[in-house]
Specification:
The complex is a heterodimer of chains A (467) and B (190). Chain A has 467 residues and is α/β, with parallel strands linked by helices. Chain A contains 15 helices and 19 strands. In chain A, α2 packs across α5 and α12 packs parallel to α15 (448-457). Chain A is globular, with a radius of gyration of 21 Å. With 190 residues, chain B is of the alpha/beta class. A three-stranded parallel beta sheet of chain B has the order 3-4-5. Chain B starts with 7 loop residues before the first helix and ends with a helix. Classes of the chains: A alpha/beta (467), B alpha/beta (190). The interface between A and B is large, with 74 and 58 residues.
Amino acid sequence: MSATPRTLFEKLWAAHEVARTDDGQSLIAIDRIFLHERTGTLALQALEKAGRTIRHPRRAFCVMDHIVDTKPGRPGLTRMPGGAEFITATREAAREAGIRLFDIDDPSQGIVHVISPELGIALPGLTLVCPDSHTCTVGGLGALAWGIGTTQAEHALATGTLRVEKPLSMRVNFVGRPDPAVTAKDLILAVIAKHSATGGLGCAVEFAGEAIDALGVEGRMTLCNMAIEFGAWTGMVAPNEDVFDYVNEREFSPRGALWDQALAAWRELTTDEGAEFDRELELDCEGMAPQVSWGTSPEHSTGIDALVPEPDGDAGRREAMRRALDYMDLAPGQKMDELAIGAAFIGSCTNARLSDLRAAAKLLDGRRVAEGVKAICVPGSMAVRAAAEAEGLHRVFENAGFEWHESGCSMCFYAGGDGFGGMRTVSSTNRNFENRQGPGARTHLASPATVAASAVAGRLTDPRKLS
Amino acid sequence: MMRRNVDTDAIIPSREMKRVSREGLGEGLFANWRYADLATREEAPDFVLNRNRYREAKILISGDNFGCGSSREHAVWALADWGIGAIIAPSFGEIFQANCAQNGIVAVVLPEEQVDAIGAEAERRELRLTVDLGACEVQRVGDRALPFSMKPREREMILKGLDPIALTLSEHAAAIEAFEKSDRTARPWA
């Protein structure tokens, strides 16, 4: 056999290419469509208004996650200003369309990118789209998944396909063995800091190397979650046996003979030896410290042991850095690990899975959050929450002074109601944009361990100093 | 708006998405930058869209990676509702760029030097530009035209306001049927 070696991306693309359109785009078959109440409902409504139906209703799902309350004892609607309309309209649209809705009181409810793998809706080798930019998260399972707009979601629902211009292929090679305290979050922040927030623009990015092979399934999802912050069309990691074990016996996973057939197909989902990428980048992980962001783009990240940087690079970059320093109320030369914080947040589709909560709890056990620091933990799904409670992790968080919430996207972004307005916040989320977590909120992105260590110390802190 | 990485949260903050609707989002456009007081809607006088010269602007010029971040199509609907018909930048967030094409906004990619030059000129004086979609050029009176590229299909979609779903079903229905049939055999587990 001397077939041309192919990349993982090539294999996924070829398996879904229905046709090529006359201007060089491809029509790609969509295996799963997930919607949420903030952006998906409009697609369902528009479809109905146009008299169209969903081509494969059993492949479409919907969840309430973006603007639901997360404070314990939440109501069936939401306290978020204007939010109730989104909830009621979503219930009605999902019912009309005949698709499965994971409603607020459903034990499977949670953040879309956390529950799609938990339920076996996202699987290796599938295409999955959602009108949400962090859909790339499930590339961590070896799925081809990307975020789209509402109008494109309508197209996917009606036709079972999307028109896509084929992206370039890129591999990011992680070289060297990172310190055990360096997590998937630190790795992806370092990649974006080194290669910029547009480094992956126009590319389907495969993450590879020894450090990636060593990542657990949830870490792979954290890594791919932030491919969009790298500007990438999507991110992915070749699935391994841990991934197959992870998706086995989930509610929507294949069973019996179908499982065996799927498994055989999934074991082919690797980049062949000698396959060529359009672009290759590298990150040296040796000696890398846990990362934290200092500015207003994820590319504004550095080691927790570093100093706030001096604006550098071309004129556009210097101007952006100056603006970011001003917004963050920082000056070049300040020590990152001396910055006092007002709030600590563990949550979001990036870092609120069980392994994230365990990592934070390990540091919080027997300790207290510093005086005056508002600390909140929002598990990524109700299933994560239940699993954490079964291990007693909620007690660890609560005893340390963290609020322990129900699941949702919550304060990763500010939709009104509670937020971190005006506060310096260390956050396990994905975006440190101006005002993202509330008007005037100053967000420092970090791993759950760094968030926990910082909450205890009352300032940004290297988790290695606590453990 | 000569800055990099203008994200869709900045274009329309989540809390400005008040209704399950594509309409009326212009009021929330750039709310955090445009209003000195969010509650009373008192304007921030320095913000570019509040300057008299640009209150009626139809073309937005910005830095690298415009529209990065959240996939919310509301960002495009808000720009369109306010009156923007074209955006010129060195690069765009990909989901945002696709959303533009679905809603008749022309996302023009030009080399950074060219964008910086016209951006600087727009800061200095009232600049009149034409984005000619037929010719795929940004035109200035008394200056050379700046060519840009756009997929023929994308251009046709914007110019004719085509319905992409109807188009796919009319052109590819048979191919979709055939694919699904063979896929059921190849990947019955999917």
